[in-house]
Design brief:
The chain is of the alpha/beta class. The protein is built from 13 helices and 17 strands. The chain starts with a helix and ends with a helix.
Length: 388
């Protein structure tokens, strides 16, 4: 099939829930991809932060293929060694105690909501504070958790029990803690909200406040996690230890997986029958995740993410068309002085560079394995588009 046939098929048979760019990718290697007609692209998106090791990493491919040849799925009635090994490795990497596996970030956040409400049940506390401008998923409950009214308006009524506070406003959050609050949920860097990092004093103060009030501190690491900001999880760069952590996107390097991680005091809070997922902990996804975890959770690898992120940021800030750059590691948002971010995204794709947007910013989430040569080649295309 040629590109037009694929596009026509998409328009005819797929719900129109995505704004597509005119490219049909069929092959990739690390930070490069090729479309159905052979055009090559530098990819600064990593599938929206999913392909941590880039496209078709040989070690990842071998582990996934080997597991697929042994057993591809089993009922959760039975023990799965890939599942249990990943849970142990992930708990040790995160400083958490136990894991629940599912298929996506939204599902992981749904589990976190259940954990929080179960924890608050003893004192009839069920409300959860999230931040204005946050994003936590597209299910009805995670939409309610998302602190952006634009995501709410088409799907009312949403799940009740969510309160919204401004990032940085500790006094405002403390005022909301009237005894009815069981948890606070936040991102260390608001991704879909515009690549906005949380201030370190705010995060540490919030952790102390939650501990004082016996309120769970829950961190959504769906986009920021698995090395993206230069630590395995972003909260580790803030020197705090949450009660609940949610993870997905990059965790299995391109296969569907989500995880809700809990600390020791919550290890037995959910009993059999309270939560489940048919495909959660799938052996193939877990095999891929174990390769990602082993590779990414290496001090040298994480240092390389910081170095490449600093290099990319420095080059972007030197462009005269750029107003500012913000973010952490290889999670960067770029505010342009004149050009519209979405227009730039479309033109970059035409010129062979794949990028993202976040509100009015251009957003870069390249594979963590991207080379400086590919960064330079991608930035040359970006500069050309900005100058055009």
């Amino acid at each position: 099939m040629n590109f037009q046939e694929i596009k026509d098929q998409d328009q005819s048979y797929i719900l129109h829930t995505y704004g597509r760019v005119d490219a049909a990718l069929v092959k990739g290697k690390n930070a490069r991809a090729w479309d159905v007609e052979g055009k090559e692209y530098i990819d600064f998106t990593a599938g929206i932060g999913v392909n941590a090791l880039g496209y078709s990493d040989p070690e990842w491919v071998a582990a996934v293929a080997e597991q697929a040849g042994e057993i591809q799925h089993m009922c959760n009635y039975y023990y799965c060694p890939q599942n249990t090994a990943l849970a142990e490795e992930l708990s040790k990497a995160s400083g958490m105690a136990k894991a629940f596996f599912c298929n996506s970030g939204a599902e992981a956040n749904e589990c976190a909501v259940k954990v929080a409400r179960k924890y608050g049940e003893k004192r009839n506390a069920y409300k959860i504070i999230t931040l204005v401008n946050s994003f936590h998923g597209r299910t009805l409950t995670t939409l309610a958790a998302t602190g952006q009214e634009g995501f709410h308006k088409d799907f009312l009524p949403l799940t009740e029990g969510f309160l919204y506070a401004q990032a940085g406003d500790l006094a405002g959050i403390e005022k909301l803690m009237d005894g009815s609050v069981c948890a606070v949920l936040l991102e260390m860097v608001q991704g879909e909200g515009g690549v906005i990092p949380m201030g370190e004093d705010f995060v540490k103060g919030l952790a102390e406040l939650c501990q004082e009030r016996d309120v769970l501190l829950m961190v959504d690491e769906v986009q920021t996690g698995v090395g993206r900001t230069g630590t395995f999880y972003a909260y580790q760069g803030y020197d705090i230890q949450p009660d609940v952590v949610t993870s997905a996107k990059a965790l299995a390097g391109g296969l569907p997986i989500g995880a809700c991680l809990v600390g020791e005091k919550l290890g037995d809070i959910l009993k059999p029958g309270m939560q489940g997922s048919t495909f959660g902990g799938n052996p193939i996804a877990c095999a891929g995740a174990r390769v990602v975890l082993r590779r990414v959770n290496d001090p040298g690898f994480l240092q390389s993410v910081l170095e490449k992120g600093a290099y990319l940021k420095e080059k972007l800030e030197a462009m005269p068309q750029v107003e500012y750059v913000r973010g952490r590691g290889l999670m960067l948002g770029v505010k342009l002085k004149v050009k519209d971010a979405h227009d730039v995204l479309v033109e970059c794709a035409k010129q062979g560079l794949l990028i993202l947007t976040a509100k009015e910013l251009v957003r870069f989430l390249p594979p963590l394995t991207i080379t400086k040569e590919d960064i330079d080649q991608g930035l040359a295309v970006f500069q050309k588009v900005l100058e055009g």
